[in-house]
Amino acid sequence: MADPKGFLTTPREEWPRRPVEERVRDWDEVYVPGGLLPIVSTQADRCMDCGVPFCHEACPLGNLIPEWNDLVSREDWRAAAERLHATNNFPEFTGRLCPAPCEAGCVLAINQPAVTIKNVECAIADRAWEEGFAAPAPPDRLSGRTVAVIGSGPTGLAAAQQLTRAGHTVAVYERDDRIGGLMRYGIPAFKMEKHHLERRIEQMRAEGTRFRTSTTVGRDMDAAELRSRYDAVVIATGATAWRELPVPGRELAGIHQAMEYLPLANRVCEGDVERSPLSAQGRHVVIVGGGDTGADCLGTAVRERAASVTQLDIYRRPGAGRDEENEPWPTYPKLYRLSAAHEEAGELRTAPAAHADARLFAASTLRFVGDEEGRVRGLNLVEVDAGRRPVPGTERTLPADMVLLALGFSGPDRGDGIVAQLGLQLEPRGTIARGPDFATNVPGVFAAGDAARGQSLIVWAIAEGRAVAAAVDRRLTGGTSHLPAPIGPYDRPMTV
Q1: Angle, helices 117-131/65-73, rounded to nearest 10 degrees
Q2: What are the phi and psi torsion angles at 56 (to 5°)?
Q3: Which residues pair with 269 in a beta bridge?
Q4: Could you give the CA distance from residue 33 to residue 29 in angstroms, rounded to a whole number?
Q5: Integer distance in angstroms from the first to the last C-alpha of the chain?
Q6: Are 178 and 200 in contact, with CB atoms under 8 Å apart?
Q7: Which residues contact 204 (CB under 8 A, 6 or more apart)?
Q8: Which residue, of 131, 156, 186, is where some domain finishes?
Q9: pLDDT tens profile 279-323
Q10: Which DSSP helix (H) or strand (E) runs through 297?
């Protein structure tokens, strides 16, 4: 604890964002380049060394937050990077993409703004790359055992890196043409530029991990045959089965799933195509779904110069402060938050019919309205109460010639053939069933991440990858493993 009075004398200050008018003209990250380092040491000083750091419990990775806060406040960046990487394979990802449940669990947050844990984490990770503290860590010797990892999202990459460093020969199979899963084609570049991903992939290659892209296991390669070629298989395909909106007019042209829309915009940034075939340019866009994916669609449509963009959220607008009775500290509260995309939409007034940040809260879609050619032209909605019951007299229609459905995901894609070819058992909700050691009903086959847990946060995905790697390592080495297992398959976030 470098400054015992830091939390009393220093106010919370976050990484500043670039001006809206500037950042919506490009796809670069929204933050001011270099704007974090001048403030991060004093922000780390705000960490209280509270004795019982609930931030540990709030983060499934068990990040050693007070330790690296203290090291950053003393500007010992190498030691801070070592402590950060001891629990997190990819802090530059979580420092940009995680909603920071650790900050909700910060003891200071009981009655003051929390420590900017996420910003400090990101600063350490970026400094580690700049100073060469993130060198490849290949194993001293190989075990002679082989592992196939299906899926290259954060769970698959974390599992692969841990197992490679333990000495096993690991091959990662990815159905897309590039490694990264949703971090590659689902997360817009303005939230995380892809060079952060490329650096980690090159590090993993240097450590010995092998990558097989453009290979859909279950279609291009039989899953049972793959199992016969490896000593163990980890299924980390994510929850890619998107939820539908079965209302009248769903068949109209111009209505797309978010994960049909976002990957094409990312491919424009990758240089694969000059213009997305689903570009929102000049269109009146309505996004159905109030979560992070919907916000990603919002920021993307704004950059594509949509004529208007409105986001519908079926929940009522949350308050600015924690509900101490229903969401007491240190649980993660549902608060009114203004993401970069909402800030942009609000300042540019993209949705005259909506609230200041382009969102319509407590709004439920009744039907889509089309023209004679079968294209969507409007969305009919109604306001709902806290029980999602329609409020009489509130029905209205928004102009919409493009609708994006961002309603979340229900589990792994059953159409790829992996479940059937391996004979995997499923949970009632559609996720892959597994035991306390992450093992499925098929010997040697393990399941981790959203494919088994269900849709969750990136920190849970990485924690699952690290934990399943320990379980696989125990199987391959006969019952012992030195790899950390931060969570079990049945662990869940703190709730009341």
Answers
A1: 60
A2: -60, -45
A3: none
A4: 9
A5: 31
A6: no
A7: 136, 157, 160, 161, 164, 211
A8: 131
A9: 999 999 999 999 999 999 999 999 999 999 999 999 999 999 999
A10: helix 292-303
